[in-house]
Specification:
Strand content: 5-15%
Shape: elongated
Distance between the termini: 76 Å
Strand order of the largest sheet: 3-4-5-2-1-10-11
Amino acid sequence: MRDPFIKPLAILHKLQQNGYLAYFVGGSVRDFIIGRPIGDIDIATSARPEDVVRLFPKVIEVGIEHGTVVVVLENEPYEVTTFRTESDYKDFRRPEEVTFISSLEGDLERRDFTMNAIAMDENETLIDPFGGRDAIKRGIIETVGNADERFSEDALRMMRAVRFMSQLSFTITPDVKEAIRRNRHLLQNIAMERISVEFQKLMLGNKATEAFRTIVDTGLLEVLPLHEKKELIEYDWTTISEETSAWSLLCLILEVEDTALFLRKWKLSNKRIKETEKTVVFYRSIKEWTPFAIYQSGLEVALRVNHLKRILQGVQSEEEKIRLIYESLPIYSPKDIEANGKDLVSWGNRAQGPWIAQCIQELSENIVCGKIENDRNVIKEWVSKWSLKFDESC
């Protein structure tokens, strides 16, 4: 057995020693076959959830009513799920009832795509009742059984199909693509948080442009908050490797006016929204990379904007210039100034107020641009003069 299956192999052995069947299943097996980096490793077993809880000293009983227990082994979490079948689905995403079974094949039959319906034992022997290996070899995405049924069970599977297309460079079969077109309206029943997770992974895939084209062709565009624009297919997404860059590029291509409002529709975190909003603002405002512009943006945002300008405008990269300017900055934030707010109040001979922010802004610019030194005595003199001018302008 090869890494990273070696550690969780102990879970399989423990279950087997107690008379239960246990296998690695799902995405980890798929990626093992493909040769991709392996993420989360899931285990399917004939053991009931209460048996899993009894056998392992450290467990998290998350989803136990649906048969899933997280076993923590050497500080690593592994989902262990009882073989199960599922009844009719409600809300197009959750089964009305889960029934525990003893058949591995019955458990694999409920999964979304054939490439994800493969199990592997401790000897790396594959159990593949639905032709998942052949689908992987052919580079196709096909459902386990009837596509309409799979998508009506969980409408998010349509987004997963397009996401896998982007990540794996696979092709969605014509019948599955038609099923997405027929069932696209069901995606409206899925929480946007779940959709945005899939969409973000899609944007970071090697074939994002082709995936966007499929979104347009299948009509998924109509049920996603994408302003019904098709321009996404006109740009090269292959060099986008991190989340904020992806959302920033999306906003810029769609010419989104209110970035925060648009991203809130996708239910992104406040942190992601702020990072993306800052990137978009600097992309639209920066004409030249001056020291103060880089000071204001910070190195991370400046490099991100530089990358986006290469994609959208075809301009030459200025990364080396940006890094050289950043390394030469005398300060990197107001915290580096040899004075604080109390000093400004004292030297300006005035009460605290909004003026402090304006003073710090102008002081920072003067230091960054080399007009004054970041020296306490020099700053004191500058603040005194600035305060007098401030009074005259009021």
